[in-house]
UniProtKB/TrEMBL annotation, chain A:
Subunit: Component of the oligosaccharyltransferase (OST) complex.
Biological processes annotated in GO: protein N-linked glycosylation
GO cellular component: oligosaccharyltransferase complex
Protein name: Dolichyl-diphosphooligosaccharide--protein glycosyltransferase subunit DAD1
From TrEMBL, chain B:
Keyword Mitochondrion attributed: no
Name listed for the protein in its UniProt record: Dolichyl-diphosphooligosaccharide--protein glycosyltransferase subunit 2
Domain Ribophorin II N-terminal: 31-307
Organism ancestry: Eukaryota, Viridiplantae, Streptophyta, Embryophyta, Tracheophyta
Function in brief: Subunit of the oligosaccharyl transferase (OST) complex that catalyzes the initial transfer of a defined glycan (Glc(3)Man(9)GlcNAc(2) in eukaryotes) from the lipid carrier dolichol-pyrophosphate to an asparagine residue within an Asn-X-Ser/Thr consensus motif in nascent polypeptide chains, the first step in protein N-glycosylation. N-glycosylation occurs cotranslationally and the complex associates with the Sec61 complex at the channel-forming translocon complex that mediates protein translocation across the endoplasmic reticulum (ER). All subunits are required for a maximal enzyme activity.
Location(s), subcellular: Endoplasmic reticulum membrane
Length: 114, 693
């Protein structure tokens, strides 16, 4: 129905405008998450193509992407000034946690990579 | 690798001889059997060589000692091989050692100039080294050069003697060099040989007190000797290290070489018990015919050193044959020789005791054996001793005629040897018959002459019994109990049954009660062939005699009766090779083609490029990077630290293991935490200042 498509278009446009208002650091984090998820999807596509041997390598690749995406989302939540819950948490502390957790995650991933 | 023992029965009686703590033998001196074994073991390869220098030396030395002529034809090649090594630049002391000794054994004519150069090299090694093996090779090489007619003198012999002596330990073993704590009995033998070489090469006499200390070391070394029950002594290492373990033959050979060489060059006697030297000789002879070339070399060379040495010369008592037949009235013959079979000095051999199979004393009268000078054999007629057929241990006693020989030769005093006396066994009163079950009345008895084939024809049913009886008598009239007495019944369908015929003091008798045997015979009626087997090692006329046949009538088999197992077509087929097993291995996984994998690797990098482009579009900048030098340094260190951790992860994936990685990660982590804390706290203080300002 034409109204549905134009409604969808209006929806997307307003979403885009609202998004443009978000602070830059949050946009960086969002871009990072998109990049990481895209990498994970490419890995899944490869596995779908050639089969899952060696399975541990596939798992470690995909889980590293997903894990770092999750950590990035946590960082975004903590750094977002509109979020009342984390008002008292300095963003540098959140970033330090992000870096530390990523390093631990990647140690485990490298061990599992084989 | 076990040698072939010439007297298998002797093994049985070794245990009995232990009760008397005598030396029991079954060794034979070196003979042509050893020579042919050596020729086989040291067969050269297709191009006429024996392998490396050490193997070549072992081969030519063994041939020289045994007097084998083979090596003369191959000496040209071996001489050339040795000469190449002597002339080569920068040779090791070990190579020179073996090359010089090969030239000595084969009497290759080596240039005096070449030897001059070798002497200089070896003397330089002696001056610089403190390793026992290097001392051994260089001193041994110089000694061999001197024996080939070249004039070699070792100046400053005392300090070299001291240097080698310093490596000795209090338990008689020697260390390999001043740095290592590893010591062994094998190295003790090498050290003693080297010390003997130094004494020969020295220009002045070596300090006698030092020599006395070494003699004490030899006594302590002999305290570590090991022994078997039969009077054999050998050396073995205390600690068995898998890589360096040389085995008792090599170790004992090393000690024998060292001790006899040392005893040959010093004055005075060594305080070693004579029975240990005799025990070592028995050990080497007891190997029999060795299984490997190295063992053959060690055996023959040690025996040649023991043949005439200045400690004690062992004399071996051996029997040329251990089977004596009463029928052909054999005489008991005994040889007493050196280890290589050469004549012994004048001595007396006495037969002291004869022991039966359960250590029962048959006779204890002391009889002196007469000596046959032409054949170098002591003999005795045993018929007067009234020994019956069977296996016996005979105890001999050797006594040297000249009292001064007591310090030169060792005989072992009492020696025990095992023999078998054989004879013809008389078989008489042989009877076979069928009797009824209850009454015991014999229906038909036939007398058999078991010394020829007989053909009796019997018939029986399952209610009757078969009786067979006979008597066995020895030449001296006693009852004889052979090792094997079997009665075999073979059915037409090739099913066989064996029965042992029990023997009493009077006769051998077997009663086959068919009523009880019906099931064992699988209810098979028909014609059974009868065979009797009587045999023993002491019986000269053991026999396997067909007796005839028996028609046996058994009842019908019930349904559940056992069937005889199918006879193998070829009874030996179960010893043949089995079917080939084809292993099913896990098939390797299918991998994708390399190009596809590389393409996807590239594809994975695309999102990253997209990320960077996006960052540029968002206008990221590094404005917040601290400008002051202190914080700037910390900030750069922070980024460098993160980069270092990621690099560590890459290394971890490529080659490190988890523990190393965790170790480095620990250090980097602490550094990173410190630096990161400084940087981030600086940044947060800056941002709060901006907020409040």
């Amino acid at each position: 129905m034409p109204r549905a498509t134009s409604d969808a278009k209006l929806l997307i446009q307003s979403l885009g405008k609202a998004y443009a208002a978000t602070p830059t650091n949050l946009k960086i984090i969002d871009l990072y998450v998109v990049f990481v998820v895209a990498t994970a999807l490419i890995q899944v596509a490869y596995m779908g193509l050639v089969g899952s041997f060696p399975f541990n390598s596939f798992l470690s690749g995909v889980l590293s992407c997903i894990g770092t995406a999750v950590l990035a989302v946590c960082l975004r939540i903590q750094v977002n000034k509109d979020n009342k819950e984390f008002k008292d948490l300095p963003p540098e502390r959140a970033f330090a946690d992000f870096v530390l957790c990523n390093l631990v995650l990647h140690l485990v991933i490298m061990n599992f990579l084989g | 690798m076990a040698g072939r023992r010439p007297a298998p029965a002797a093994l049985l009686l070794l245990l009995l001889a232990a009760a008397f703590a005598h030396i029991s033998s079954a060794v034979r001196p070196v003979s042509d059997a050893h020579r042919s074994a050596a020729a086989e073991l040291f067969a050269p390869s297709a191009d006429g060589s024996f392998g490396d220098l050490e193997s070549t030396y072992e081969a030519v030395r063994t041939f020289q000692i045994l007097g084998l002529e083979n090596y003369k034809s191959l000496s040209g090649k071996a001489c050339k091989f040795a000469a190449e090594n002597l002339a080569s630049p920068g040779p090791t002391a070990k190579d020179l050692f073996h090359a010089v000794r090969i030239s000595g054994v084969l009497r290759c004519g080596v240039d005096a100039g070449v030897y001059d150069g070798v002497v200089v090299t070896l003397k330089a090694v002696i001056k610089d080294t403190n390793s026992l093996l290097e001392f051994y090779y260089s001193v041994g090489g110089l000694l061999s050069i001197k024996e080939q007619g070249h004039n070699v003198v070792l100046s400053d012999a005392e300090s070299t003697f001291h240097a080698i002596k310093a490596l000795s330990q209090s338990d008689g073993r020697w260390r390999y060099d001043t740095n290592s704590a590893e010591s062994s009995t094998f190295s003790a033998g090498i050290a003693l040989e080297a010390l003997a070489g130094i004494v020969s090469l020295a220009d002045a006499e070596v300090d006698p007190s030092m020599v006395g200390v070494v003699k004490n070391d030899i006594v302590k070394l002999f305290d570590t000797i090991k022994s078997y029950n039969d009077g054999t002594f050998y050396f073995d290492e205390k600690h068995v290290d898998a890589t360096e373990y040389k085995g008792p033959i090599t170790t004992s050979a090393s000690v024998v070489r060292g001790v006899t060489s040392f005893a040959a060059v010093v004055s005075g006697k060594l305080n070693i018990p004579a029975e240990k030297i005799l025990g070592l000789a028995r050990f080497f002879l007891g190997i029999g015919l060795p299984g490997s070339a190295r063992d053959c070399f060690n055996q023959i060379e040690s025996l040649s050193f023991l043949e005439n040495n200045r400690v004690f010369v062992p004399l071996i008592l051996s029997l040329p044959s251990i089977v004596f037949s009463l029928t052909s009235k054999d005489q008991l013959k005994v040889e007493v020789t050196t280890v290589f079979g050469s004549a012994a000095p004048s001595l007396k051999v006495n037969l002291v005791q004869v022991l039966g199979s359960d250590s029962k004393v048959i006779t204890s009268e002391n009889k002196e054996l007469q000596y046959d000078l032409d054949n170098n054999v002591h003999y005795l007629d045993i018929a007067p001793l009234k020994i019956d057929v069977g296996k016996y241990s005979i105890v001999f006693e050797i006594s040297l005629q000249e009292p001064e020989h007591e310090t030169v030769y060792v005989t072992g005093g009492r020696n025990t040897e095992s023999i078998i006396v054989t004879g013809l066994i008389k078989v008489n009163k042989a009877e076979i018959g069928i009797s009824d079950n209850d009454a015991g009345t014999v229906e038909s008895v036939q007398k058999l002459d078991l010394l020829k084939d007989t053909k009796v024809s019997l018939s029986a049913n399952h209610l009757q019994k078969l009786r067979l009886s006979f008597q066995l008598t020895t030449p001296l009239g006693h009852t004889f109990k052979p090792h094997q007495v079997f009665l075999k019944l073979k059915h037409e369908s090739k099913v066989e049954h064996l029965f042992v015929v029990p023997g009493s003091a009077r006769q051998f008798k077997i009663v086959l009660d068919f009523l009880g045997l019906v099931e064992k015979f699988y209810y098979l009626s028909g014609r059974y062939d009868l065979e009797l087997a009587v045999g023993d090692a002491a019986m000269e006329n053991s026999f396997l005699r067909p007796l005839g046949h028996l028609e046996l009538d058994l009842p019908e088999a019930p349904e559940k009766a056992p069937r005889p197992s199918a006879q193998a077509v070829d009874p030996f087929s179960k010893f043949g090779p089995k079917a080939e097993i084809s292993h099913i291995f896990h098939a390797p996984e299918k991998r994708p083609p390399k190009e596809l994998s590389l393409a996807f690797t590239g594809l994975t990098l695309l999102p990253f490029i997209g990320f960077l482009l996006g960052l540029v579009r968002l206008g990221v900048n590094l404005k917040n990077f601290p400008s002051l030098p202190g914080p700037a340094a910390f900030a750069s260190l922070f980024h460098a630290g993160i980069g270092a951790v990621l690099l560590l992860y890459v290394l971890f994936w490529l080659k490190l293991d988890l523990f190393t990685t965790l170790k480095y990660l620990g250090f980097l982590g602490i550094f990173l935490v410190f630096v990161g804390h400084r940087t981030l706290s600086y940044l947060s203080s800056v941002s709060t200042k901006q907020k409040t300002a």
